[in-house]
């Protein structure tokens, strides 16, 4: 009974999230004892109603007991039943001082339209078929952008995320690294392609080839 009261007390917070984030945000409150939906606002699936079974992802969070170490997890990726891309976060409701888990709030934001907008912006920035300039082209040399340390730091962070030496990266891993840097706009900075080529122990031509391949995939 005490747990139900605690879950009821969270409902105004759910309405706050729903009002702030809008209709593209699904807000779910879970009863962790019964592993069911206690309340849901802006449901994305017809079967997501109070009393319906907890989704598998949240069940995995319970089974792994990640809540014993974390108060919340944010910015993980998920897909709705209708295959829409979601940015998700889960907050673990615990009582004090025992820190016993009483419930979970999951927020799923449909980012499908944002992904489409990002892709459109990439085309506007880089072009559908980017200009293939040689390494010493005056076209790129005349583009003066200087952000000290930005390129080096971003490249190093991406390399560290793979956890291996640059020479051991596979073709797919190099493509993924170029994709991430391109999304950050790193290649708008003068000298970025040359610096990345040096870091990957490859040629600038190879980096241009990766970028062209990404545009073809888009």
Per-chain topology:
Elements: H1 2-21, E1 25-31, E2 36-41, H2 56-64, E3 72-79, E4 85-94, E5 101-110, H3 112-126, H4 138-141, H5 150-162, H6 171-183, H7 192-199, H8 204-217
Antiparallel strand pairs: 1-2, 1-5, 3-4, 4-5
Task: Supply the CATH class of the largest domain.
Answer: Alpha Beta
Give the CA-based shape: elongated
Query: Mind telling me the CATH superfamily name of the largest domain?
Result: PAS domain
| Computed CA radius of gyration, to the nearest angstrom | 23 Å
Number of helices: 8
Key features?
alpha+beta, 8 helices, 218 residues, 2 domains, Beta-Lactamase, elongated, five-stranded antiparallel sheet, single chain
Give your account of this protein's structure.
Helix 6 packs across helix 8 (204-217) and helix 7 (192-199) packs across helix 8 (204-217). A hairpin with a 5-residue loop joins strand 3 (72-79) and strand 4. The protein starts with a helix and ends with a helix. A five-stranded antiparallel sheet has the order 2-1-5-4-3. It has helices at 2-21, 56-64, 112-126, 138-141, 150-162, 171-183, 192-199, 204-217, and strands at residues 25-31, 36-41, 72-79, 85-94, 101-110. It has two domains: 2-110, Beta-Lactamase (2-Layer Sandwich); 114-217, no CATH class. It is 44% helix and 19% strand. The chain has eight helices and five strands; from the N terminus they run αββαβββαααααα. Mean pLDDT is 82; it is low at 135-148. It is α+β, with helices and mostly antiparallel strands and 218 residues long. It is elongated and about 65 Å long.
């Amino acid at each position: 009974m005490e747990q139900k009261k605690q879950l009821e007390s969270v409902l105004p917070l759910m309405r706050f999230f729903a009002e702030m984030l809008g209709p593209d945000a699904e807000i779910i409150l879970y009863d962790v004892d019964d592993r069911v939906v206690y309340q849901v606002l802006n449901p994305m699936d017809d079967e997501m109603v109070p009393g319906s079974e907890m989704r598998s992802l949240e069940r995995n969070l319970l089974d792994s007991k990640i809540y014993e170490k974390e108060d919340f997890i944010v910015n993980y990726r998920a897909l709705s039943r209708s295959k829409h891309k979601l940015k998700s976060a889960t907050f673990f409701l615990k009582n004090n001082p025992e820190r016993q888990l009483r419930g979970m709030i999951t927020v799923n934001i449909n980012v499908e339209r944002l992904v489409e907008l990002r892709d459109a912006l990439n085309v506007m920035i880089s072009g559908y078929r980017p200009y293939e300039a040689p390494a010493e082209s005056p076209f790129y040399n005349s583009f003066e952008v200087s952000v000290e340390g930005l390129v080096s730091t971003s490249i190093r962070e991406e390399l560290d995320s793979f956890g291996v030496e640059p020479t051991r990266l596979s073709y797919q891993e190099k493509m993924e690294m170029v994709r991430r840097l391109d999304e950050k706009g790193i290649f708008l900075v003068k000298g970025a392609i040359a610096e990345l080529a040096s870091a990957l122990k490859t040629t600038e031509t190879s980096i241009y080839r990766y970028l062209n391949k990404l545009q073809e995939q888009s």
